[in-house]
Amino acid sequence: MPFIPYRDRPISIDEGSREVFIPHETGVSLTTRDHERDHRRVTMADLMTECNYLNPDVEVIAEVNTAASFETFAETLNTGHGLLGTTHAEDVETLVNRVVEQGLPPYLLQEIDLLVFPKRVGEDRFVGEVVEIVDETTYRALDRDADNCGVVRKADATVYWNTVCTRDRNGEFELAGLVGEGSEPIHAFERLADQTDQTVDGVEAMFERRHRYVQYLVQEGITDADELFALLADLETDEAATVERLHRKRTDEPTVRGEEIDGD
User: Fold this and answer.
1) Number of domains composing the chain
2) What is the Cβ-side half-sphere exposure of residue 194, based on CA atoms within 13 angstroms?
3) 40 in a structural domain
4) What is the β-pairing status of strands 157-167 and 173-175?
5) DSSP assignment, residue 106?
6) What share of the chain has pLDDT > 90, as a percent?
7) Which residues span the domain enclosing 30?
C-alpha cells in the first residue's frame, strides 16, 4: 500500500469488517453489511458497482475467500484498474485449486502480475517466495532443470509459473534477473512496461530504487504506517532533497542505533 502514489485513489472492498489500512487522503474503504432485509443489505456486488463510480486507481480486496469475493476479484481484473488481493494459499498449486473450485477460469491468473507467498517462522512472518504466471511459450524458454518453475494441471486447466524471488534460510533474497548473468528475467517487468507505457529498463530502475527505499526503512526500523507513507511520498516527489534531508538528520544526531556519528 505505501508504494501506491499518494496522488492516486486506492479503494478497499472488505467483507464484514475493515481489513486494510489506507494512508492516502484520497482513499476510501467500503465494507459489506449483512442484514435480514434486502434493502439494508450491502453485498460485494453492490460495493463493486459503487467502487467503479468512485473511479479508483487501485482496488484492494483484502480477503478473497468466499465465492462472492472471488467473483468480485475476477470482475475487477477486467476493469483495467490496479488490483491487490489476499487469499489463503501456500503455493501456486493450492491457489489454482482454489480458483477452479470457486468456478473461475484459471486463465484469469495470467492477468495477475505477481503472486506473493508469505511464510511464518515462530512469531515472524515474511515474504517467502514471489511467483509470476507465464504463458506456455515463455515457460518453454525457461531453465526447467533449475527447479524454479513448473506446471499446475487442474481439470482442463494448465497454469505455467516462474519464480521471481525466494528467501533462503539466512534471510537473504535471491531475485531473478538481478543476480548476475545467466539468471532468468523477470517477465512481469515486461508486462508492467507495456501497461504503464515505460521501457523495461525504466521499470527495473524504478524497482531497484524502491528496493533501496525498503532497505533504508528496514535499517532504520521505521514501521509506523503514517511515518513510512510520508517518507515514501517525499522520496517519490523529490528523492534528492529527501535523501539530503535524511543525511543531515543522521549527521546531526549524536548516535544512531548505538553507533557514534561524527558531526560536521
Assistant:
1) 1
2) 5
3) yes
4) antiparallel
5) G
6) 2
7) 1-87
Answer yes or no: are the C-beta atoms of 59 and 51 closer than 8 Å: yes
Q: Which three-class secondary structure state does DSSP give residue 93?
A: helix
Size (the chain), residues: 264
Which of 7-21, 173-187, 209-223 shows the lowest per-residue confidence on average (mean pLDDT)?
173-187
Q: Pull the grid cell for residue 259.
A: 553507533
Residue 17 domain-assigned (yes or no): yes
For the full predicted model, state whether its pTM sits above 0.85.
Answer: no
Closest CA relative to residue 213, chosen from 199, 234, 190: 234
92 found inside a domain: no
166 pLDDT tier (thresholds 50, 70, 90) = confident
CA distance 39 to 7: 35
Q: 32 and 16 in contact (C-beta within 8 Å)?
A: yes
Looking at this protein, which amino acid is placed at residue 121?
Answer: V
- Using DSSP bridges, classify how beta strands 10-14 and 58-61 pair: parallel, antiparallel or unpaired: parallel
CATH number at residue 49: 3.40.50.300
